[in-house]
Give the backbone structure.
Amino acid sequence: MVKALKLTKYGGPEALQWEDVEVGEPGEGQVRIRQNAVGLNFFDIYVREGLYPFPTPLIPGQEAAGVVTAVGPGVTDLKVGDRVAYAGGFGAYAEERLAAAATLVPIPSNIDDVTAAGALLKGCTAHMLLNCLHVKVGPGVKILVLAAAGGVGSLLCQWGSALGATVFGVVSTEAKAAQAKEDGAHHVLLQSEGDFAEKIKELTNGAGVDIVYDSVGKDTFMQALEALGPRGLIVCFGVASGSPDPVPLGLLTRKSLWLHRPILLHYTNTREDLLACAGEVFNALSSGIIKLRVNQKYPLAQAGQAQEDLKARKTTGSTVLLVDSA
Ligand SMILES: NC(=O)c1ccc[n+]([C@@H]2O[C@H](COP(=O)([O-])OP(=O)(O)OC[C@H]3O[C@@H](n4cnc5c(N)ncnc54)[C@H](OP(=O)(O)O)[C@@H]3O)[C@@H](O)[C@H]2O)c1
């Protein structure tokens, strides 16, 4: 038996129950992993609260790093002792688990488990947003990152500015603004200063930005649209404040805007794409293009508290749940 956090019905942090679970032996195409570090993601809160009605009971958590301890039939490219990480599916909130070998990526020797667990999902998301959409980010491109001091936001600022873009950020506190600036954002706006679209217009001589990365959703969507210039792209990739209201097409027509709602899974659903995306993230970490800010660590058993702190906007950068201290 190992310990895991199980969700049997949607609710608050108390809905995550620290229980004994049987892991068993790996089946065809599976390996067993002893996990060391688990990445916390805002999606875990959506799952716990039932925003998306996944059938329960389930063990939440999408991202972790650990060591292969057993290999099932048909697995040829992994062996006992290999260090692996993953980003997707469920089942990460556990000391040990079974996982399909095809979903795992090897962790380079220069990257520790805490970094791998905190960076893979958020880093792949940042890579997808910056490099895989129809507008490529580079010199001369102006991007606006909402929640610029968050887990994904911090990586977007660093990577976006390294690609040569002019980076604008929006955050809620002075401390978060200081971090976003350190991460390469050229202009950081505080929400308390009022309508950020107006400020963006001023800063860009009325032109607006080319891309808005909006992970906040309901509270920011309309301002995000206003902040765009003609033919701009709004990328709604998260809904931390709730889902935006339905969008009349006429709103896009005014400036020939593009609206995109990407999900990482659709950019990494072949083995080739997954390995390529993870490779980009590990290379960016290794070369120093991005640096993971692990600003919070909690024992895995306290994932509920960690989620509450993320939801209450108390966190910055990445949060990692440690299995050893559970
Ligand atoms: N589409 C995909 O495939 C994909 C993949 C990964 C992540 N995501 C999305 O990316 C976003 C960022 O994820 P993360 O794990 O890195 O979280 P995060 O950005 O570290 O945390 C959320 C941040 O959103 C801001 N926020 C604004 N309004 C909020 C509200 N009403 N409630 C809570 N937070 C609010 C807060 O920053 P301020 O205090 O500065 O406003 C908060 O720190 C999430 O929306 C997540 O769903 C999407």
